[in-house]
């Protein structure tokens, strides 16, 4: 006889269902098994009980539907453990950044140096002399921990530190031009991403934007013509994430500083990334150094802590003493300050710059950026076949050349020759690639690559732990 599944179960099926429901273990029985497995010890009794109840509800629903379900308390305790593990897993967890973008803003930018991590851990674990002068026993200033170091490394008279470079620009603009005008070239009205747009920052800083010049050409006379009694500041912005090429003209900082001095207003030079060393010595494209910007005379220079500098998120303001004093008494500074954990990491990171010869050994950002292509290609050669085995015959895996980027808006045009693995579906199907990317993201340590042109490319520049990469692959479930 043909039976429609939407009809009520036949008497015999109903009897089986009742029997199944009676056989579902009690919460107490499942909890006993979780205790034996050490699960309740790990996650606590309350969370374990809640999870066991959820598992039992799901099991009951399955039995009612007539589905086969393992009713053994050990198996249910196992499900409870998996539920707890998933709920406990942090969404802010380590990933393999194989995107080829070394300082990837969405993946946390710079990876910190060991000395920085150690210093941060100590600052987290113990009371520290954060605002306490150990010599006099009096109150100290948190900037004191890095002020001298920043001056030493940049040649500036004074320095301060805030939450990030966006905060540094906001604070500097607010200090010198709230209620007044800030002059900036039309070629430098940047958008950094994440809603950092220069005109909006200026509005929030309370100043009136006065645009001068054109997108591609701004002359000294344009700035001079804009200066008036309401001028509070001249702002120069390093166009970090784009470049205007061709028929262009910009006014260099040296000349702008002279114009600013004539007008008796400060020049703020926002470098964006900025770097404390000449990158050319590591075979990388040049980027203006902070020392050069200071030497060109800008009263205030701002730059980021977690871009090329390779430290934690932070923003630096260095420059002339009287201008820094004005910044330091701005009440906004208190709202933008950094905490002890980052301050400790910043101090340790900056100290590494005292020995540029060993920077590529000790600072992960510099080590990764300067990593020779041949070394990366060797990693690709070693990983190609284990990855091909893990992916099975549906995919073709081959070592390839690729191009890395610095990221975070630094050196947007220059690409760094790199190597990696190119994965494409054997039958050319596009959906397979998206599913593969999703499976790689679902790994215990998600693997993030770059898709495009019918392939998924894993740029191996940032991969340091090959063993961890391989053992992680063992968990791959292709959907
Ligand atoms: C990146 C950047 C900023 C913002 O710096 P954050 O440290 O990300 O806040 C500001 N100005 C320029 C020119 C930048 O490149």
Main traits of this protein?
20 helices; binds pyridoxal-5'-phosphate; four-stranded antiparallel β-sheet; Aspartate Aminotransferase, domain 1; about 475 residues; seven-stranded mixed β-sheet; 15 strands; alpha/beta; Aspartate Aminotransferase, domain 2
Outline:
The protein has 479 residues and is of the alpha/beta class.
Q: Give the biggest beta sheet.
A: 7 strands, mixed
Strand order of the largest sheet: 2-10-9-8-7-3-6
Give me the Rg, rounded: 29 Å
Bound molecules: pyridoxal-5'-phosphate
CATH superfamily of the largest domain: Type I PLP-dependent aspartate aminotransferase-like (Major domain)
> How large is the share of residues in beta strands?
15-25%
Highest-level CATH class of the largest domain: Alpha Beta
Q: How far apart lie the N and C ends? A: 38 Å
* CATH topology assignment of the largest domain: Aspartate Aminotransferase, domain 2
Helical residue percent? 40-55%
Count of alpha and pi helical runs: 20
- Per DSSP E runs of 2 or more residues, the count of β-strands stands at 15
What is the second-level CATH architecture of the largest domain? 3-Layer(aba) Sandwich
Q: Give the low-pLDDT segments.
A: 1-5
State mean pLDDT (0 to 100 scale).
92
Q: What number of domains?
A: 3
- Structural class by secondary-structure content: alpha/beta
Shape: elongated
Written account of the structure:
The protein is of the alpha/beta class. The chain has 3 domains: about 10-90; about 95-105 and about 370-475, Alpha-Beta Complex (Aspartate Aminotransferase, domain 1), CATH 3.90.1150; about 115-360, Aspartate Aminotransferase, domain 2. The protein has 20 helices and 15 strands. The chain has helices at about 10-25, 25-35, 40-45, 45-65, 75-90, 115-125, 145-155, 165-175, 200-205, 220-225, 255-265, 290-295, 320-330, 330-335, 340-350, 360, 365-370, 375-390, 430-440, 465-475, and strands at about 95, 160, 180-185, 190-195, 195, 210, 230-235, 265-270, 300-305, 315-320, 395-405, 415-425, 445-450, 450, 455-460. It has a 7-stranded mixed β-sheet with strand order 2-10-9-8-7-3-6, sandwiched between helices. A hairpin with a 2-residue loop joins strand 14 and strand 15 (about 455-460). It is elongated and about 100 Å long. The two termini are about 40 Å apart. About 40% of the residues are buried. Residues about 1-5 have low confidence and may be disordered. Bound molecules: pyridoxal-5'-phosphate. Pyridoxal-5'-phosphate binds next to helix 8 and strand 8.
């Amino acid at each position: 006889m043909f039976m429609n599944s939407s009809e009520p179960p036949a008497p015999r099926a109903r009897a089986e269902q009742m029997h199944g429901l009676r056989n579902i273990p009690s919460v107490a029985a499942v909890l006993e098994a979780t205790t034996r497995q050490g699960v309740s010890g790990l996650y606590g009794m309350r969370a374990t009980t809640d999870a066991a109840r959820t598992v039992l509800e799901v099991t009951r629903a399955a039995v009612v539907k007539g589905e086969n379900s393992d009713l053994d308390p050990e198996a249910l305790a196992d499900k409870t453990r998996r539920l707890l593990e998933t709920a406990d897993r942090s969404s802010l967890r380590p990933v393999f950044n194989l995107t080829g973008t070394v300082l990837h803003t969405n993946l946390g930018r710079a990876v910190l140096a060991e000395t920085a991590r150690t210093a941060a851990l100590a600052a987290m674990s113990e009371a520290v002399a954060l605002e306490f002068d150990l010599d006099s026993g009096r109150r100290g200033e948190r900037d004191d921990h890095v002020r001298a170091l920043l001056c030493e490394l940049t040649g500036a008279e004074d320095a301060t530190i805030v939450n990030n470079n966006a905060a540094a620009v906001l604070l500097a603009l607010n200090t010198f031009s709230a209620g007044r005008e800030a002059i900036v070239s039309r070629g430098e009205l940047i958008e950094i991403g994440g809603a950092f747009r220069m005109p909006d920052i200026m509005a929030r800083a309370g100043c009136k934007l006065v645009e001068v010049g054109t997108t591609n050409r701004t002359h000294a006379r344009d700035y001079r013509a804009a200066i008036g009694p309401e001028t509070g500041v001249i702002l120069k912005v390093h166009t970090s994430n784009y470049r205007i090429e061709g028929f262009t003209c910009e006014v260099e900082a040296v000349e702008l500083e002279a114009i600013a001095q004539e007008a008796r207003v400060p020049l703020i030079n926002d470098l964006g990334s900025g770097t404390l060393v000449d990158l050319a010595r590591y075979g990388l494209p040049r980027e203006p150094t902070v020392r050069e910007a200071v030497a060109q005379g800008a009263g205030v220079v701002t730059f980021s802590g977690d871009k090329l500098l390779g430290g934690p998120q932070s923003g630096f303001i260095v420059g002339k003493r009287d201008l820094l004093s004005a910044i330091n008494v701005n009440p906004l500074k208190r709202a933008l300050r950094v905490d002890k954990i980052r301050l400790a990491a910043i101090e340790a990171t900056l100290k590494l710059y005292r020995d540029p010869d060993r920077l590529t050994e000790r600072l992960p950002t510099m080590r990764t950026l300067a990593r020779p292509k041949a070394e990366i290609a060797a990693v690709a050669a070693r990983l190609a076949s284990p990855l091909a085995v893990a992916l099975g015959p549906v995919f073709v895996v081959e070592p390839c050349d690729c191009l890395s980027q610095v990221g975070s808006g630094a050196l947007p045009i220059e690409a760094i020759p790199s190597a990696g693995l190119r994965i494409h579906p054997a039958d050319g199907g596009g959906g397979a690639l998206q599913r593969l990317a999703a499976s790689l993201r679902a790994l215990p340590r998600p693997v993030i690559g770059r898709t495009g042109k019918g392939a998924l490319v894993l740029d191996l520049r940032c991969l340091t732990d090959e063993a961890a990469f391989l053992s992680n692959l063992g968990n791959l479930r292709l959907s």
